[in-house]
Amino acid sequence: MELSADEARRIALRAQGFLGAPDRRSGVRGVLRHLGAVQLDTISVLARSHELIPYARLGAVGRGTVEEAYWKRGSEPPRAFEYWSHAACVLPIEEWPHFAFRRRAYRARPHWNHELPDGAYDQVIRQLRAQGPLTATELGGAKRTSEWWDWSGTKVAVERALMYGEVVCVERRGWKRVYDLAERAVPADLLHDELDDAECLRRLVRLAGRSLGVGTRADIADYHRLRAEQVEEVIADSGLVPVTVAGWSKPAWADPAALASPPRGRHRTTLLSPFDSLVWERARTERIFGFTHRLEAYVPKPKRVYGYFAMPVLAGGRLVGRVDPAREGRTLVARQVTLDGSKAVPAVAQALVEAAGWVDCTDVRVERVDAPGLREALTLELARSLA
Questions:
Q1: CA of 247: how far to CAs of 37, 250, 316, in Å?
Q2: Beta bridge partners of 319
Q3: pLDDT of 144 over the 70 cut
Q4: What are the pLDDT digits (tens) for 274-309?
Q5: Strands (DSSP E) along 290-353, which ranges?
Q6: The pLDDT of residue 145
Q7: Which residue, 153, 158, 108, is CA-closest to 129?
């Protein structure tokens, strides 16, 4: 089957939840199940990335609602767990068995960046078994010094246990991981690592194809950070179907359900987290949207082009600009705005006003527009929208 570049773009938008009516009944949990992975990150400007991702699809869903959808509370069964997927991600709890291949690989890993002190691992397991779910601080301290990377022996041990699957995080208190024994926290019918590597990989390749709609082997591998040869081994048996996309230099694979009907419906207009799975892979974003973007938070300030946490603006199924946001009291500040021409002004204004309302800001101030001639037009459009 051959797809046009426009068809592939629309399939990808629908697969990611940006085209057509959002599934509000399933809410944030539905977004997590649909995407298969929601990336976590420590940066918080408007909000943390795991909050921005459901917001981008559902609109102004309460931030407390987002947290409740992810994290276990009290005696209720867990809905999700944290693990290494595309990066550190929230994953649906039902996918625990399918990361057995990665847990086995970590256990067989010959070396680590952090040295594990003698006896620290067993001590963490004993403490969790005796005292129940604990944060790293409660276990004995997360860091040896004030440096973010200087983990204590306890932190090294509990993170190693998490990677091995002996410990799991299904809850956060504030922004702190709460660790528990997997045998206690993961439902019994999901706990045991009975699936072989091929079964795990087939499932994750199929899930990646469903979440992307259509993608190259590299796109599919990147979604859960699989190796190219792992995808190659199972893709023919994954349920995905081969397609060609006009303008793509590599063969592609698609979710059959995505090909069953043409993508139609209303497009979402929104700011996107740089860690959103629609745009987290630069080569795919450039291929599908003709839009080059990278996170510049870790780039020295003088070398930044678009700003510390520049957020792409999605409108009409296109990426039409970028906003580097900040908050000052109840004012959302657009420190730097990049616009794809004058036609992008209404969409960027709409995205800014909606985001401001979501984070309880009552005003929007624009500091800089890369095309100075459009600054007045954007300011006027914002004033109309806020009136």
A1: 28, 9, 21
A2: 314
A3: no
A4: 999 999 999 999 999 999 988 999 999 999 999 999
A5: 311-315, 318-328, 331-339
A6: 67
A7: 158
